[in-house]
Amino acid sequence: MLLVGGWVVVLAPGVRTAPSPAPKALIDQYCVGCHNQKLHTAGLDLDVLSAAAPGDHAEAWEKVIARLRARSMPPPGRPRPDAAAYRAAAGAIEQDIDRAWALHPDPGRIGAVHRLNRAEYSNAIRDLFGIDPLSLDVKSLLPGDETADGSFDNFADVLSISTAHLERYLSVARQVTRIATGLAPAVPGNETFEIPLFVNQDDRQSEDLPLGSRGGIAIRHNFPVSGEYLIKVRLQRQYQDYLKGMGWPQQLDVRLDGALLKRFTVGGAATGRPAAASYAGDGEPGFAGDDSWEKYMQFGGDAGLQLRVPVPAGLHIVGVSFVRELWEPEGLPQPLQRGRVIANDQVYMDYANVGAVQIGGPYARSAAGAVSSSRRDVFACDSPGVAGQRACASRILSTTARHAYRRPVTTADVQTLLEFYDSGRKGGADFRAGVQFALERMLVDPEFLLRVYRDPKPSPGASGVHRLTDLEVASRLSFFLWSSIPDERLLSLAERGQLTNPPVLEKEVRRMLADPRAIDGLVGNFAAQWLNLRRVEEVVVDPERYPNYDLSLLQAFQRETELFVGSTIREDRSVAQLLNATYTFVNERLARHYGISGVYGSRFRRVELANPDQRGGLLAEGALLATTSYPDRTSPVLRGKWLLNNIFGLPVPPPPPGVDTNLENKPGASPASMRERLARHRQNPSCSSCHAVIDPLGFALENFDVIGGWRTVDEAGKAVDASGATVGGDKVDGLSGLRALLLADPEQFPRTVTEKLMAYGLGRPIEYSDRPAVRKIVRDAAANNYRWSALVVGIVQSPAFLMRSMPADHTPATVARR
Amino acid sequence: MMLVPKHTLPRRTILRGMGATIGLPFLEAMLPAFAARGQAAPPVHRFQTFYVPNGMAMEYWTPKGEGTGFELSPILEPLAPYRDQMLVLSGIKASWNYIHAGASGSFLTGTPKGGKTEIEIFADVSMDQLLARHFASDTQVASLEMSMDAPANAGACTGNLSCVYTHTLSWRSATQPLPMEWNPRAVFERLFGDSGSTDKTAREARLQQHKSILDSVADKLASLKRDLGPGDQSKVNEYSDAIRDVERRIARAEEQRDVELPTIDQPQGAPPVFEDHLALMLDLQLLAFQSDLTRVISFMIGKEQSARPYPQIGVPEAHHPLSHHNDIPELIAQMSKINRYHTQLFSKYLARLRETPDGDGSLLDHTIILYGAGISNSQRHSGDNLPLMLVGGGSGRLKGGRHLKYTDKPMMANLLVTLMDKMDVPVDHVGGSTGKLPIDTLAGI
Lengths: 818, 445
Hints:
The structure holds two protein chains of two kinds. By secondary structure, chain A is α+β, with helices and mostly antiparallel strands. In chain A, the strands form seven sheets. Chain A has a four-stranded antiparallel β-sheet with strand order 4-11-6-9, with no helix packed on it. Chain A is flat and about 85 Å long. Chain B has 13 helices and 15 strands. In chain B, the strands form five sheets. Chain B has a seven-stranded mixed β-sheet, with helices on both faces. A two-stranded antiparallel sheet of chain B has the order 4-5.
């Protein structure tokens, strides 16, 4: 046994340091012909490397492994080994590297200063003060977080601290702490909640709106103090600023927590002659409608849609919706107008829609000025005198600081905060004002905003790695699984030095995975980025080719994948189920789109899928299919590339510079099918080396159109051909073929998931030196069928999570110089 | 406990040394103080765009005569008191002439063309943003973009192109249009933060609070830095740099505290009546200039393709449909009432700019305002001979009181380059510009 910096390493007996013979023979036969010292192709000299210890050249060997696993080398046209030989060679090299790694695990070095990103900041506020993120959108108040290309927004080295950040932190700290301590805002607040134009308002919009309602919006709003508030509704207008749907009366309800406050009648009251049906008229005098008509259509229709109501302090739901009245259009059918301008006559008799809701106030404070119950507990102080109150403040601030700074509090901490408490009480301000100012100071403190990893003092003879402290691990764990600060239990275990005891650590991981915050964090932040869910709402679709598309459909895609991934985590299923599950989540709109019958209503519910060749798993979900297409056509290349990067775990480089990637049909020529257009990929050898790998995977999904609908005829009117063969010679036919290919090697997909999850959990990119850890985690998870919990526990117990490399210049001399 | 930050110099240090100014280095942080005192320092330039939509009744706009001896037209007549600080420009062509999208889309960007479909959103960096980048080091707010119309539309608005083109003049980059703020409350918050009022005590209290927080945090950072190795300190340095930057702005804000500002409370939202809303927006613009919070403002009195009716002046027809008057004289005359109403409102704003002292003159003396439309004949969406004028003293760089007629059809982008040059921010092009415009002298005028 070797004691290395406190981390016990067991020397495996009988370890070989020379490479296994099997790969060497294969490499000599198939690879060394190009990759040798003389030709130096792609900088890889496999003749030299073959004879060396694999552990010394792990970086190069990992590249070789990747090519062997993808079977993308040798390039098409050259003699290639058979599938079994590829697998054996890759496996043998992996074994050698893994053994060498086990002797000296390299945990990598996370950046020393790791800023909280927006999501983490928002959740930390929620956990510190009980402020529901739906009621105060803290994320929208902070600048966006940078991501290195294709990675996650919680990478330490990429998150910067700019002046804009600091200014926003100062401003947000004030807002948040005022709400938390129940101080009345300096001025009456006024927030506007807009509904995007392309959200479909023909149906019930949310679970917070009543059955039998149509359109509108439910707003979870935090009312800071009891008082009188103004709720104002603005309806949607078409591009000529005429209100939509004014041709007939409709009923608009305003509700507070479900109770009806007022029912308005809108529409149906235009008087006088209307304007010409087309927008510009013919220029003759009188083309405009009568004054009274114009006024009603531009202003009158939604004038006076407001009310003042007394509202008690706290979180409430303001619901604005129409009473649902179904109708069918008569006369000649009109094409649905989505992207193009909507003419006057086409919306006059249509549904009116809510454009925006404004909530302002308090305009008149209630006598009580009551603080909502969640805050009463934390910030109350019963002592009357000044000294007693200061003692209260000391207690409150030190409790909160311990969670905000994620460590035991020192006297210096409390001292600083109390100075701000005193400053906040100057001029006779009350107890809460003092506490508020101290909390404001707390939220801008570097120990709140940053996670800092400190190197221990160097000692002679120490190894190049060190263990993270229990407190550092607690933070890392809670930000990984919950995107938030550690809770009481985690913090106390860490303070007592018990957290990194392996059975305790595993128990905590399982407890945290079972907590709803894990679903929020892992789905809302990890899966949302890995699976492109944050880009779904930005998808642009050609409305003429796809008149069925609107924002409600895109939102449904996002929700489906969120619920689906969440269900696999909650039920601790195998990650392979992400690909081969036979169920998904739909509402009526989505069910119709997918061709699933018998689903009614806007609520999402689980459905079993009848036909695994057409639906089932991530690869057939609209979110993925829509974000890997162009607005007017599918792209096998985009899809193939995305699959390789994110599902197969075999990323490909971008095309070489100067390549013309334009595939537009030549004008006058008959439209070519996608395969014909991509023919150049196969003909040109410098293209085919990558595209032989990419294209067949994308073609397998060609039955799914731009918005994920099933089709048998493509945009050019040609029959869809979703069959193909991968470069390795495997047949791939459609969705089922793709699935089968991915699951043929049971370790392949779990490895990809582990890599992504590990990068997210560590807060840094995965390096070649992490691959052995990934392989070990997946091997160990086989016994548990590659469940989520097995992968997460494996990641948390790996050296990369619990240890850190020292910097190269970390000697007593350099440290003393600081 | 209040630490005096070592990185901002109190003004007293400078003033005391004025008598013997040897040895004191000229620090950039002191520049605003100098500018306000009108010392021998580079002139302060301000630029404002005042945009009117849906073209112009050109028959009522174009002045008769050229050079200094021109006659004010009916639409320009309300601006008579400002004649000697007014340059009317005729004959300039729109950089991109495409229905309504090109009008506003190229007005400040000078782009020769934009996108081709509803989903292609593409122009160029606009001139106000190029100026803003430069002036941002001197002002707390780089620029303000404001409009009387909310950007309520998505999708296609004009000629199958995105509504974005008609709702804004300002573009941060070729693909990044900037939203124009229509809510006076949001503008107020941008300028004055969350103190709730322009009242001096409220603002100052807030500044002091920020300072004390930042001082305390800076101490914490210093000790944090000591715990880290040299290779790890860069992020902490970013944090310290950010603190210094914010403290610098606070110092600048403190220097401006002595400027008497009218007390305005934070507006609640947009008033329903057009004139009230406009008054509030113009109050805020004046305030922004007066307190030197910004030196670049872009303002649209209506989005391009605005359908606002003006019943209060006897024009109940919606503006945009009316602008398609089919060349019928009665309808053109009707539309010209809207155009004249706009210049009347503009004139009242100019009066306030002229009344506000600034350095050795008035705000108007040290401002260039570009007033006009991106379309001339609205019936045909014509981009030729745009209705444009420059108002203000331009800190001595503009020679007013003239009507300049360009016969070689220069593109508007060239005017933009020329203006940037006049404001001491020379660039080699704006959008698709081909050179500068002769503006100081023109063929003997």
